[in-house]
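User: Let's play a game. I give you a shape written as tokens, and you guess the letters that built it. Ready? Here's round one.
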């Protein structure tokens, strides 16, 4: 997740990390590399194993999100469950930075069943932190955004909320959460923040609403009349590659340049996804260097238009919709939307197996891009990877003859170009330019 620091950022950042507030739900941030004990049950009342630190999954009531179990013995965190016809699994794998073996997983995720006291509603969220306090930022949003949304929704007294009211509530909750993060004295978000991609499912209405801030992503797996599976985007990455997003931040005084361009190397072909991406810079300095145009936190970048206003969309579900996937760019930087839903179809009887397969495939692709054969290679480098797979009703039945078996499968080498890891450039990149 791309936020470039600068020497100014280094000065602003608090060198003495303050003690983190204990989260209200369990965290998926840890530092070791051992295989976790996984939760494989599909019962919504079963909690992940408690590691003795008191941070198990919270109760499933009005606002308490189901996060993942804190486990200092694990580099991966897993939660799965079901309620009625909906089954889901969440998987988060800590990345690897060859220059910082102790770097924590900066991703977070949470699930709230029976959201806002409605027995058929869900709220899922994935948050990709970045910067020095990125792990704290993503955990803060994970813990505080769902209850803020419940409060905002409660201001509408209509028995049947309109999509406009839901969108307005999501807008308010994100902006409030962003301000609370700015105001939090224990987290310096000057040059740190998080993305947020979330799905609000209203089960009784068969309606989903997506809210997106940043470049994490939501996709939908839907079947066509011929029974084949197609991936449909439910969000658009908010980056300077989008002309309307670039224009918006420019109106706030930002410059849009790649690392190469700001370093005076001329045209670095920043429209080519395999090259250095365009970033947001101040007019008078080499900061903040964000590769996204919206986020929560990032107080300095916010002055340049990098704000927390979500893009929202709602969709009425039909029997054709089979899967919803939320993931950070650690997944989508190396896998296409279609590949992800194809893996869901391949493992259509178990969302946990789908998550496992997708994360493992992403891991392989990161290593391949770094020309590494195994994880122990000192050059091995990959982003944090977090994924939620949501399986909707009768996902394993497609058509009269289960045509899912004929759905297009992923090739061993995908035809689309693989984007190299360009978002993890840190302070050294900018120091070299200076």
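Assistant: Ready! My guess for every position:
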């Amino acid at each position: 997740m791309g936020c470039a620091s600068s020497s100014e950022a280094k000065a602003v950042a608090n060198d003495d990390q303050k003690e983190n507030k204990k989260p209200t739900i369990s965290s998926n941030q840890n530092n070791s590399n051992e295989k976790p004990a996984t939760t494989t049950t599909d019962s919504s009342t079963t909690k992940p194993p408690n590691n003795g630190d008191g941070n198990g999954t919270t109760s499933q009531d009005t606002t308490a999100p189901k996060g993942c179990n804190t486990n200092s013995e694990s580099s991966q965190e897993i939660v799965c469950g079901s309620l009625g016809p909906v089954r889901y699994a969440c998987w988060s794998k800590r990345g690897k930075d060859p220059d910082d073996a102790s770097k924590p997983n900066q991703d977070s995720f949470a699930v709230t069943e029976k959201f806002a006291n409605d027995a058929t509603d869900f709220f899922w969220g994935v948050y990709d932190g970045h910067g020095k306090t990125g792990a704290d930022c993503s955990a803060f949003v994970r813990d505080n955004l769902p209850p803020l949304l419940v409060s905002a929704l409660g201001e509408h007294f209509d028995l049947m909320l309109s999509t406009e009211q839901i969108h307005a509530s999501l807008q308010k909750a994100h902006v409030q959460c962003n301000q609370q993060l700015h105001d939090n004295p224990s987290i310096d978000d000057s040059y740190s923040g998080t993305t947020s991609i979330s799905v609000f499912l209203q089960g009784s209405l068969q309606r989903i609403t997506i809210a997106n801030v940043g470049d994490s992503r939501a996709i939908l797996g839907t079947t066509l009349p011929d029974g084949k599976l197609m991936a449909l985007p439910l969000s658009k990455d908010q980056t300077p590659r989008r002309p309307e997003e670039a224009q918006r931040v420019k109106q706030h005084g930002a410059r849009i340049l790649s690392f190469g361009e700001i370093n005076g190397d001329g045209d670095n072909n920043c429209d080519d996804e395999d090259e250095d991406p365009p970033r947001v810079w101040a007019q008078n300095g080499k900061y903040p260097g964000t590769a996204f145009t919206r986020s929560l936190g990032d107080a300095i970048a916010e002055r340049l238009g990098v704000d927390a206003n979500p893009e929202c969309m709602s969709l009425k579900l039909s029997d054709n919709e089979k899967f919803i996937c939320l993931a950070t760019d650690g997944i989508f930087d190396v896998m296409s939307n279609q590949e992800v839903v194809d893996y869901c179809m391949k493992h259509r009887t178990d969302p946990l197996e789908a998550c496992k397969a997708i994360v493992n495939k992403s891991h392989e692709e990161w290593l391949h891009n770094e020309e590494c054969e195994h994880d122990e290679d000192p050059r091995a480098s990959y982003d944090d990877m977090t994924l939620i797979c949501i399986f909707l009703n009768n996902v394993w039945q497609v058509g009269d003859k289960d045509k899912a078996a004929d759905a297009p499968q992923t090739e061993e080498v995908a035809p689309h170009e693989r984007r190299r890891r360009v978002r993890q450039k840190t302070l050294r990149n900018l120091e070299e330019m200076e």
